[in-house]
Amino acid sequence: MEQQEIIRHIRLVSRMMDQINYGIVYVDREKRIQVCNDKAKGFTGIMFDAPFSHDEGVISEGDIVIIADNSVGEDDGGLCSEDLQSLNIHDGGISQGDILLAVGVYRNAEIEPAYKYVHQHHLAMPVRLQENYLGFKICAEVDTERRITAITVNDVVHELEFFSSVGNIVVVDGKYGNIKFFQAKGYSVRNEDLANILRGQPFQSKGGSSYEVDVTGRPYLDFFDESPLTEKMFRALEGEPISVRNTIQEINKRPFICTILTAEEEETGRIFGVMLLIQAVDSLEALVEEKNRLIEQLENVGNKETRRQDFHVPEEAVRSFVGNSSKAEETKYLAYKASQNRFNTLITGESGTGKSILARAIHRMGMPEAPFVEVNCNAIAPSLFESELFGYVGGAFTGARSEGKKGFFEEADGGTIFLDEIGDIPMTIQVKLLHVLQNKIIYKVGSSKPVKVDVRVIAATNQNLEEEVRRGTFRQDLYYRINVFQIQIPPLRERQSDLYLLINQILETTCRRYGLPPKKFSSDALKVMLAYNWPGNVRELENVVERAAMLCDSNIIYSEYLSVGNEDTPTSMKELLAREEARILESTLIRCNGDKNRAMKELGMSRSVFYDRLKQYGQE
Hints:
With about 625 residues, the chain is α+β, with helices and mostly antiparallel strands. Helix content is about 35%, strand content about 20%.
């Protein structure tokens, strides 16, 4: 079969592959692209939709440049100190791999830039730079949890997702104030990396709808970076036996499921070219969910004793849930199984047993890169539940933000929402929550427009929801919807053999967290703690251990430092904060000679909140 005949067949196949989410790139012996279907173009950014537009051009002196780079020197064209000096940034502390947020004027040494950088960032919150810069309202941020960079100029947002790294840049025309350039998917294909733009590389225009580059007949390396995958493709062109079958490979710094096939002449075996098949990584999810439905059915077969014989959990899984008793092992096993599925999970157990810790572990094992949003249902006022869970649009009610607000469900889109103490949700909200779980759609307060959300729900409660259903305080249909897979965490008194491990683990963590020298409990202190039944469970144990570690100056902690069994000892962070709040209120009133208006003003509290707190703590 001749080369042209092969290309004709591949083009036919590629159009079929478009329909089933497969990208195809065919490269000939001269390493030129002969076929690249729409899916491949879309996956790699050769073709993309742009919500905005700009003309072709080049950066000029006086232009305002905004940067949101999650890893300096990586996928930004090799950004270096010389590039940053063009924005009047002369800071030797900025290193490769740092998160950098900056705004400055191009090649103007008289105007000071604004910037911040972070060497390491592991918190579940964005790093953000907000400035009113030369009359422009600027916000640049890197959200490592959602893997998004965003640059906002006067309320217009330019977002760019990333897998490992990305260099987002927006250029504002210094003469006219319009957006001169914005970064978009596939910038490596167009040589529009952040550093290249700062070095004067001309950029191409972007339309208001779709953007596409004609790649036919062009060198492969004009559009795709040199990588292990590229090396394997070129070796295959030379006739080397290469095996790449449905493996994760990086193309332009992004992961794809790739397969390499060779096109050969039947008689001579001469290789005409190689065909690269590309699948997006998230296309595996459908297959995983189908498999998980079968696993779920199997999990309901057999009794508890039979399941206990197979409590094998991968090493390092559920590390945060300490213990090796049979009850602890069963809990870990169920948590691991829950993590491998996306069905709704209900965690039950007494207060302080670690329901929040287990929920995070389930999410981390199953969807470590996706958002995790924790909602403490008993800390939300009944009147605020709907707006907090589902969000609201601007002007929905008095006091609402003009730009509106995302709710917890929208924040958790693509990941997990953890509804702690779900039994405290009012009946009126339970109806709407059931609707969301059934239809995967929310309605913001003040809007009739449906918003789709893909959220996995983990709920937790220390109440007996079956009893609450019988009493009529919790909807039966909602109970069945959240209770697809239940995990009951045993109280500490039922897992005494885990106490010693927990005590030592908490003590070690406490000393490390507060910079204390390593400490140990004396034998008499251990006897006291091992004999106590811990009604406050792990939370109470943590408070007791932390208090003892802070009070004791020596490396041996004796029983005299323990507050075990003291009814006045707070057993939760909520109780500790309440006690401290009551103390502050009392001392402020004393300092103000009982003048409540003065105390209210000094504390910065509204009248209703101030008097609610006085009533709550008996200080009226």
